[in-house]
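Researcher: Next entry in the queue.
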Amino acid sequence: MAKSDTKKFLTEIFAWWSGQTWGTRLWIKRFGNFVGTDEFGNRYYQDKKANRRYVTYAGYADASAIPPGWHGWMHHRTDVVPASADYKPREWEKPHQANLTGTAEAYRPDGSLLNKGERPRVTGDYQAWSPE
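Model: Structure for this entry, 132 residues:
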């Protein structure tokens, strides 16, 4: 077994945040039907008996990495699988954007402790409360 294969094997056993674990793999093999794959490589399954739906992530387990169409399917808002020919995205659905919280690219407005600059002055659209 190569070094990378050993690392992948151990990661699947112990690390739930990086793809799927062995428990997930066995559960899906026993009870799951493959439904489709999204553009990021995430794989989607539906339980054979119960009405449960599963996703195995291509990388780290990050729920924000599910595109809008698949999110609707995962949460039972639609039964139309986005990988099928019948699926048509709504005009208001936007392309997926990664959640950048906790990274250097995260949004930091002026006045934030992690951004230079000063917080803009209040524009007068409200009156601040002060105790008397």
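Model: The chain has a mean pLDDT of 81.
Researcher: Noted, moving on.
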